[in-house]
Design brief:
By secondary structure, the protein is mostly helical. The protein is 81% helix and 0% strand. The C terminus is likely disordered.
Length: 461
């Protein structure tokens, strides 16, 4: 007889993987649909982003209902529902019909709220960071879509990119229904309004903003990177899909590491490093996107940072809201999904208006800096209890110095060919010195020091 408790984590992770593959099915096909229907960059971006909208907003009620009715029931119902829009999308013969079915395919994104609530309610608190990090590796489904969808479409036709997804969805439906345990009934049944009362807590909004940036970066890069690479470098859809899949795989593998670090050294410390890193990586892309090597290195760096951040944020959710995990998971997850909805549309509009994607990456950098500072304000006092003020604040100061220097450098280079002049200016030497000092100090401050001195402390905040 199958031990349903032990089967819970692998089955829900695998089910989320295929649900996320469904959620991202339009991304690798966006350039194909652009050619078929003569779409503008903005129209293509909307098609890619529209599934994210419903999948984000509906995470709120689905997280609450999972607390109330159980993860096994909700997950099974979701997988059953996804069969309908997948069948319909295969028959779509116009942009309007694609948009219609893309909207309902977005429900696949709610699998995150169901799965995280399901796993967290059946996992001991001291293991939640690691368990939720592993469970959220189901995000790798976007990479599965990037790997498989272009090849399936090329071999069997575009319609089979949708119809082929039905097979794993049905298999996971059977596994979830028959081989996962029921959740314990809540001690008190809350109404929807009572569940949403968590909105009055500042930590709900803080975590929502944090996840808006980290998961938003993960989703928007995952779904828009193929189109971006095709546009910038003329890659084939298959090549661009494989490169985008690499981003998704790295970010997904980094997520459980972020959760595990949150268990060991405190999630707020991990996030300090994360937001400084994303800010620098986004500015690096805005400066050097004409060079595919620079673009690749910066994207992979952001993938690591976003993955660590996603794991760390969801270490804090059950830690700060142990009795309201489902509601907060839905709300925070919704904001994370919306963080992936707006950037692709914004990037398409920026490209149509200016002919460049630079402004979009500058905005990502600024949002990351805001989260960096907010994390210091909200959780900084708890970090200070475990370190000496004068010695370890230097890592944060280095982050701000490096960010300001990059911003100044961007203004200097505004009207020049960035990559051709990059190594000829004296300011570049200062940039290299600051960046190397920042990375060295940040590594010591937030990794080596805490592992050395606080490895016996759990992820309290």
């Amino acid at each position: 007889m199958v031990n349903k408790q032990k089967a819970l984590l692998p089955i829900t992770t695998l089910a989320m993987t295929f649900a996320f593959a469904v959620w991202a099915v339009f991304s690798p096909l966006a350039s194909t649909f652009q050619e078929m229907f003569g779409l503008s960059s903005t129209q293509k971006s909307i098609l890619v982003a529209i599934p994210v909208l419903l999948g984000s907003v509906m995470r709120i009620p689905l997280g609450i209902w999972t607390d109330r009715f159980g993860g096994r029931q909700l997950f099974s119902l979701l997988l059953l529902f996804l069969i309908v829009p997948l069948v319909g999308a295969g028959f779509a013969n116009s942009y309007a019909m694609l948009m219609f079915w893309a909207f309902f395919i977005g429900m696949a994104g709610t699998s995150f709220a169901i799965s995280v609530t399901f796993v967290s309610r059946l996992t001991p608190p001291e293991k939640q960071g690691t368990a939720l990090g592993i469970n959220a590796m189901g995000n790798i489904g976007t990479a599965v879509a990037s790997f498989s969808v272009p090849s399936i479409a090329a071999a069997f036709g575009v319609q089979w990119a949708f119809w082929g997804m039905i097979i794993p969805v049905v298999i996971m439906l059977l596994l979830v229904w028959f081989f996962t345990p029921d959740m314990p009934k809540p001690k008190q049944q809350k109404t929807m309004l009572e569940s949403l009362s968590v909105l009055k807590y500042k930590h709900t909004w803080t975590l929502s903003l944090f996840y808006f940036v980290t998961f938003g970066a993960f989703v928007s890069f995952g779904i828009y990177l193929p189109s971006l690479l095709i546009d910038l470098y003329g890659l084939t859809p298959v090549d661009a899909g494989l490169r985008a899949a690499g981003f998704t795989v790295i970010a997904t593998l980094a997520r459980p590491v972020g959760g595990n670090l949150g268990d060991k050294i405190g999630a707020e410390r991990v996030l300090t490093f994360v937001y400084a890193g994303i800010a620098i990586g986004a500015l690096a892309i805005s400066l050097g996107m004409e060079n595919i090597a620079v673009m690749t290195a910066a994207c992979l760096f952001i993938a690591i940072m976003a993955g660590l951040g996603n794991g760390a944020v969801f270490k804090l959710v059950p830690q700060l809201f142990p009795a309201e995990t489902g509601a907060v998971t839905g709300i925070v997850g919704a904001w994370g999904g919306l963080g992936g909805f707006f950037p692709p549309i914004l990037m398409g509009m920026v490209k149509d208006a200016t002919g460049s994607y630079m402004l979009g990456f500058i905005l990502l950098s600024l949002f990351s800096l805001i989260c960096f500072l907010l994390n210091r304000i909200v959780f900084g006092k708890k970090q200070e209890k475990r370190r000496k003020h004068m010695h370890h604040d230097s890592g944060s100061h280095q982050a701000v110095h490096c960010f300001l220097l990059l911003g100044a450098y961007l203004l200097v280079q505004k009207e020049t060919n960035i990559m051709n002049s990059f190594w000829r200016l004296r300011s570049e030497m200062k940039f290299c010195i600051y960046l190397s000092c920042f990375l060295r100090k940040l590594f010591y401050t937030y990794i080596v020091h805490y592992f050395t001195n606080y490895s016996n402390i759990g992820g309290d905040s």
